[in-house]
Hints:
The protein is 23% helix and 11% strand.
Amino acid sequence: MPKSHYDSFEDTPSDIMSDLSSFIKKVTKELKIDKSGYRMITNIGNDGGQEVPHLHFHLIGGEKVGRLVRDKNDL
Length: 75
């Protein structure tokens, strides 16, 4: 985990993102969701729904997740 603070993906150096990617892989293996699948979400900026001003990821797994965006025919 990085010790420095970064507001968003754009502010985060590539080497830190690489470290975060490795950490997320480790976490998904520990949670045993690496094979069955999971959703990884990060919200960036006001229009992206970011409410907490630091880079963080949400991992959703352990069961089948639904579609994130509805099909236009569902509207």
